[in-house]
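Let's practice the habit of predicting before peeking. Look at the sequence and jot down your guess about where helices and strands might fall. Then scroll down.
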Amino acid sequence: MKTIYLIAAILFSLSVHAQQNLKGAYQSKEDKEVVVCLMDGYFVETKFSVNAKAFNYTWGGPFVKKGNKLLITIHFDSRDKAAVGKTKEISFGEKHQTLIDKGENVLAGNWHMSGRKNGDQFTDNPLRARRTYKLLTGTRFQWMAINIETGEFSGTGGGTYSFINGKYTENIEFFSRDSSRVGASLNFTGKIENGQWHHSGLSSKGDPIYEIWTKN
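Done guessing? Here is the structure:
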C-alpha cells in the first residue's frame, strides 16, 4: 500500500512539475494573428493585428495540461462574460503552435497589481475578484483588468518588452481601449525588491505612476 501511495505521489509531482515548466509565448499555426502566453500555470490567448491596429479578443485563466491538450478554467473572455467560470479544452503542441520564446526572463511570470505609491504613501491592493494581471513571458507582456466573479472585462493591452539594467520598455502591439496607442513605446524604471516588482514612470496617458506587482 505504501508503494502505491509513493508511486501516486511521484506521478502527481511529475505532473505539477511538467505544468509549471510549460511556459513561454507561442503563435498559432492556423491563425498567425493569435498569440498564446503561458506562465505560472496561467494561460492567455489573444488575437490582434499590429498592421491594422486591431484588437479582436482575449481570454484566459488557470490551466492544466493533459497530454497534448490544455484544460483552461476561464477567468475572463472579452467576447462573452458568461463564459467566465466554465472550462475549455484546446489542442496544444508543435502541430498547432510555433514557439516565440521560452518564458525566460527575470520578470517572466504572472503578476497582479498589489499596491501603489502616491508621494511617500504606499497603498495596498489585496487580491480580490476585481483585479489587474500582467503576464510576462521572455519577450512579451500583456495586462488584463478583469473581474473573475462577475465576468466584467475592463481592458487589455500588450506587445513586446525589454528589461535591461533597470530600464523596462514596453512596445505596444494592441490596446483594447485605444488603438491609436499601437506602435508607441513606453519607458519605465523597474526593480525587484523583496520578491515584488516595483514599476515607475509615466502611463500611456502621460500620468506619473508607481506600481507594485506581486507574483500569483
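How did you do? The domain at 109-215 is CATH 2.40.128.490 (Lipocalin).
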